[in-house]
Amino acid sequence: MWKLLPSGKALWKNKFIAIAVVAVIILLTSIWVWRADKQDSLSYSFAVVNRGDLQATITATGTVEPEELVDVGAQVAGKITVFGKDKSGKTVDYGSVVEAGAILAKIDDAIYAAEAAQAKAQLAQAKANVQRAEAELGQLRAKFLQAERDWVRARKLGPSDALSESDYDAAQSAFEVAKANVDVGRATLLQAKEGVAQSEAALSRASQNLDYCTIKAPVNGVIIDRRVNIGQTVVASLNAPSLFLIAKDLTRLQIWAPVNEADIGNIHPGQPVTFVVDAYPRDTFKGVVGKVRLNATMTQNVVTYTVEVNTDNAEQKLIPYLTANVRFLVAKRQNVLLVPNAALRWRPQLAQIAPDFRQQYQKDESTGVLRTASAKAKKEEWGVGTLWVPKGAYIQPMEVRLGPSDGTFTEVQGPGLQEGLKVVAGEKRLADEENSSGSPSPFTPKLFGGKAPRPH
């Protein structure tokens, strides 16, 4: 069988296609390798160990509250007929300054006045009943004494010619009846006296209810809330309805701030506090921790404790219920070595570490610190951490002890630490750097298998 062979032109065409495909594959592979190398190339960001002052604080958001708040309620039901006058002579309202005993409002007292008058009349009747019972008891006692004398004489004579048997029996019977009548008279008098006591209690209760119709301020203070209007009917029940809310003294205020359970161990009475409020953003106010409430609150699985902060308000710039951003001063350090927290958080890859330290780093990788630093810090009750410093083409660890932190910087101590020391604080990709500063120099040494971290 004859087999047709391709012509020379067709053969060259197939070779050209094959060469083109191979060239495209090589080009795509080169681009991919170049881009991967470009993306994986990193440069270090450095921070410098500085010397300065630091204040470690705990922050919280709380509410300005009156130090003592009095809820004025109504003990009786009725309609509000009139409001009283404040210290300046104006009708009491929001913000009125009042003195203890000042009339805040009056409730319609017509019914209670009638009840008091009725109770007074009943008391007078009860007292009259006592007088009548006393008089009757006096008469009964007189009759008893006469019957007693007759009975004594009858017993001496006995039944005889001088005293018939019937007269003897009559004298005995009269004595016993008189004695019983005296006992009844005494019981009647006692009952009448109990009636007086009951009437006096009823009058006292009615008079008290009548007095309750006049609502008075129990303390000196400022009305921060008025909860009723003239003509409104209040209904007294088991819980007295609230009419006014009085802040006893606005020259002394509190901030109630919830503090996370992780931080509450650093809060104690007498601790200095600073806070700001949105009403006066340029002013910083001072206070001290008064107490830590022990009844914890859990919100979305977060446990917090309310801390009471006492503050002076002599100028009365602060008003109740402002939102306060609070800072509790935990520690104050002066002229100490500080590093950014980013330098303490950063961790390298194993290939970036100087070979002499790789084995030790692998052993302590779970903690990120060297054992010598950890043991010494634990003994002195400091935290422990690791900083990374340049060493030729690599970086090496430097063990440090951690002091207080303000959330941005942390105090550090340790051998070899000095002001001006450069430490690694992070990395950034060369591709990002080249976009802003141009292509890297072809003379930049490549480290770690072709990837060149560079100082930034």
TrEMBL record:
GO terms for biological process: xenobiotic detoxification by transmembrane export across the plasma membrane. It is found in: Cell envelope. InterPro entries: Beta-barrel_RND_2, MacA_alpha-hairpin_sf, MdtA-like_BSH, UPF0194_transport. Residues 114-150 form a coiled coil. Residues 69-238 form the Multidrug resistance protein MdtA-like barrel-sandwich hybrid domain. Signal peptide: none annotated. It comes from the Bacteria. It holds the Pfam family Beta-barrel_RND_2. Keywords: Coiled coil, Membrane, Transmembrane, Transmembrane helix. It comes from Desulfobacca acetoxidans (strain ATCC 700848 / DSM 11109 / ASRB2). Residues 257-328 form the CusB-like beta-barrel domain. Residues 426-456 are annotated as: Disordered. This is Efflux transporter, RND family, MFP subunit.
